[in-house]
């Protein structure tokens, strides 16, 4: 009897601790929903990689064509990202998410029903058009739901959805494809998308803009406006670009705004072309956009070809691979959570540039850890290196995303994410074909594992350079934060 009660209480106790760790019931619900959005966003790409062998055999395609299949949705998303960013800044973001997730579901269903490479490619094009809406809407919602000094930590939990989704696609998608068919992997994602759309509509009300909807710690409910609240009724900005502590730290260091970039009109009223010009005029933003794109470029190539590479390099089965993926995934998950948590702590202790220094360290460490793992011929040496490398690479994203919100006026958060998304999606679209082409060129014949290894090694070079470039923002970040704060007054 005692054991039974203990077994019943243990899951509840674990759930309670997790909710407390996330900041209370209201924060936990929001984080879970937004993480779910990013999870399904990346699960499709993970599934493409997981069923790569089946697709190549069934549809008679090579690495380059597989890379195009994975990259085309990102390319289409890049084309429509900017208009979607305007929607995120001026319309009800929750409705945008619900509609686009429903389109994801239809596109994934079409992918599962595809009878040729062309029909599967067309389904991926439709999917790309829908996926482009997720990033700007999520970024804008995070800015209006979490205080500035806690955004990197919140982003760490939310971005864990990307990793869980990619892992779900690689692990579950691969197992489903092996047991049934690659088609059922897409059917499963289509069903999950419908459930997510319902959850977003039911439990994710639209927040007011300008800092009046931040969720307090341990809050049971969210102080929001509701899904029917028109965006024109938003409250004025707080005038402090946050909870006061970020700008206070900047102010105590004697950092002043850049007067030539202080906006003379409400940021959300800027036309699209002028807002894009303004966003690209922010020095820190330009470098962070580039840094993010390079990181996602490598990640896109990795998630597309890692299954094929590991299986061919180390000659292991799908069953063994299924046991290894969670190990590497746990490393990445640890990195993304700690990356946000530690940088927020450092910022609160006065480390002004923590949010731009941490990504530089993460990118550099990732490149130095992946290289020996790729060169190793022993699986049990390579896996710990891949796990540590994944943790370092993942740790860069939460502080990067939080830093972009710091340096941009609140009325431009959606468009800022769209500008970033354009280059990110171009990078994600280019990465799989590029990796595939290099692998086919260098591997040739029967030595296809060596071709993939060499492709990964070559692409580690820009990742290492990216870490050095990120350090350059230490000089510009404080002034850009102060300028954004002045714009929001």
Automatic annotation (TrEMBL):
Pfam families: MFS_1 (PF07690). Coiled coil: none annotated. Residues 30-478 form the Major facilitator superfamily (MFS) profile domain. InterPro entries: MFS (IPR011701), MFS_dom (IPR020846), MFS_spinster-like (IPR044770), MFS_trans_sf (IPR036259). The chain crosses the membrane at residues 69-87, 94-114, 120-142, 154-172, 184-204, 287-310, 316-340, 455-473. It is found in: Cell membrane. GO terms for cellular component: plasma membrane. This is MFS transporter. SUPFAM superfamilies: MFS general substrate transporter. It is a multi-pass membrane protein. Keywords: Membrane, Transmembrane, Transmembrane helix, Transport. GO terms for molecular function: transmembrane transporter activity. The keyword Membrane applies. Gene3D superfamilies: MFS general substrate transporter like domains (1.20.1250.20). It comes from the Bacteria.
